[in-house]
Design goal:
The chain starts with a helix and ends in a 27-residue tail after the last helix. The protein is α/β, with parallel strands linked by helices and 472 residues long. It contains 15 helices and eleven strands. Helix 1 crosses helix 13, helix 3 runs parallel beside helix 4 and helix 10 packs across helix 15. The longest helix has 40 residues. The strands form three sheets. It has a seven-stranded mixed beta sheet, with helices on both faces. A two-stranded parallel sheet has the order 1-10. A two-stranded parallel ribbon has the order 7-11.
């Protein structure tokens, strides 16, 4: 009886703990949903229809520099460079690719991809790699500044991409149009691709990003834009005005004395980019538009498809955004800014609550077995717990309905259904990544050195039969 009573008490307390915090998170998500509905009704969340060919051929308002930092990306960087230069024909575009002196394979791939196009600039870092992505971006910015001094002409905007990206034909024109219209930072949607070229399990591990980005870039970022809050950058498909980079340089000069835009020890410089520009007084925009074919004007890429690499990437995100964000970004702005930054930093708590939830599943199964064998009486459930569990049940049904709806809108009903079935997988990844991030953060507090814990890429969309689906 003593053991049973202890087990029942533990289950009750864990149920109450998990139920309350699940409900708090559900109310937070519901508030975002209602804000999105309100923006929709006010006509402020409309996805515009644009002509891809017209945007692709747009005359740029000024010179544009595109930046791609690369470390051990020989497998994909050549495809990215060739597709980008072929897709964006503007003569005033310059593509800066940053490599490391101890990465000859990537350097060779970049040179081979040039094919005589004088818009490509190869920048070799003088330090051994990997440092951090932020440090590599600083090296690229130094090269850009030197070219500006030599030509006596400044770039109008800087566009950021990763080595594995497939750019949209209309993206550069849309970014240029928005920056020329007065924005200082612009983020376009990111559209993860289904890794059909891998096995069934790898396909679904990699595809769990589909529903995450469908909701994040179909709703959450739209709400942030509508509320006027700072926009976290994705690191790809985003652009900053040259004025905004000057603001970041001035800020870094005051904080670290470097005179470069990025903090070289940051693990999430992309997340910090838009927030830092907003904090410095810049105007940020999230722009959703579709081409005449109905597809989003977005950056497309394959995301990790192995469990270990997914956990590593999610760990880096939780560490940089949820934990280091407290130190690096802090709390600034009004109510909407506080709200959004609190949402960004709930990752470790979410992981803890999810872990408790799965422990409850085990405890409940054990309890049910004991009751079935007649070894224990049915538990007494308080009215408070009944209300909390009922509310969580309704919230869960709403959540899976929203996930299905947003995933279906971009990928079809089949992927919408899979998005629901992949929830346990996504939760397990979140739990493991949250735990690893906390321990990694503890190591940084003891003086650990930041390093580019990048994701390995083995395939590019242009080699997987996806090029024609977004061509002009």
């Amino acid at each position: 009886p003593g053991l049973w009573q202890g087990l029942a008490l533990l289950q009750h307390e864990l149920l109450l703990f998990a139920g309350v915090f699940f409900l708090v998170g559900a109310l937070d998500d519901l508030a975002v949903d209602m804000a999105w509905v309100w923006l929709k009704l006010r006509g402020r969340a409309v996805t515009a229809r644009r002509n891809r060919a017209a945007l692709q051929q747009r005359t740029l308002a000024g010179p544009v520099a595109a930046l791609i930092p690369a470390w051990r990306e020989a497998a994909v960087i050549g495809h990215t460079i060739r597709h980008l230069l072929d897709t964006w024909p503007q003569a005033s575009l310059r593509l800066y690719v940053g490599c490391y002196r101890n990465d000859p394979a990537t350097i060779r791939a970049v040179i081979d991809a040039a094919r005589g196009d004088n818009r490509l600039r190869l920048v070799v870092h003088g330090r051994e790699g990997p440092t951090t992505k932020a440090d590599c971006l600083n090296r690229l910015f130094a090269a850009i500044t030197l070219d500006e001094e030599r030509s006596a002409q400044r770039f109008a905007m800087l566009v950021f991409h990763d080595a594995e990206d497939m750019v949209d034909p209309a993206a550069l024109g849309l970014l240029d149009e928005t920056i020329a219209g007065g924005a200082d930072f612009v983020q376009l949607p990111v559209e993860p691709l289904v890794p059909r070229h891998h096995g069934w399990l790898a396909r679904h591990i990699g595809s769990h990003y589909l529903e995450e980005f469908a909701e994040a870039h179909g709703k959450a970022m739209v709400v942030r834009d509508g509320l006027g809050a700072g926009l976290p950058g994705a690191g790809v498909g985003c652009a900053a005005s040259r004025r905004a980079l000057d603001l970041l340089v001035a800020r870094q000069r005051g904080e670290s004395g470097t005179g470069l835009p990025f903090a070289s020890d940051s693990l999430t410089e992309d997340y910090e980019l838009g927030l830092a520009i907003a904090a410095a007084g810049g105007r940020c925009r999230f722009v959703r538009a579709r081409g005449e074919d109905g597809r989003l004007i977005a950056t497309r890429a394959f995301f990790p498809h192995r469990f270990d690499t997914v956990v590593r990437q999610k760990t880096r995100w939780v560490l940089g955004i949820s934990l280091q964000g407290w130190d690096r970004v802090g709390w600034e702005g009004g109510v909407s800014e506080y709200w959004m930054r609190a949402r960004d930093r709930r990752g470790p708590l979410t992981a803890l609550v999810l872990l408790v939830g799965y422990l409850l599943v085990i405890l409940t199964a054990l309890q049910g077995l004991l009751i079935a064998l007649g070894l224990a009486p049915p538990p007494q459930i308080t009215s408070l717990l009944v209300v909390v569990l009922a509310a969580n049940g309704v919230a869960f049904l709403w959540r899976i309905a929203m996930r299905f709806a947003f995933t279906t809108r971009e990928y079809g009903a089949a992927e919408g259904a899979w998005a629901i079935l992949r929830l346990p997988l996504a939760n397990v990844i979140a739990i493991i990544a949250g735990r690893r991030a906390v321990f990694a953060y503890a190591r940084t507090l003891r003086g650990g050195t930041a390093q580019w814990d990048k994701t390995d890429h083995d395939a590019h969309p242009t080699t997987a039969g996806l090029l024609g689906s977004v061509s002009s």
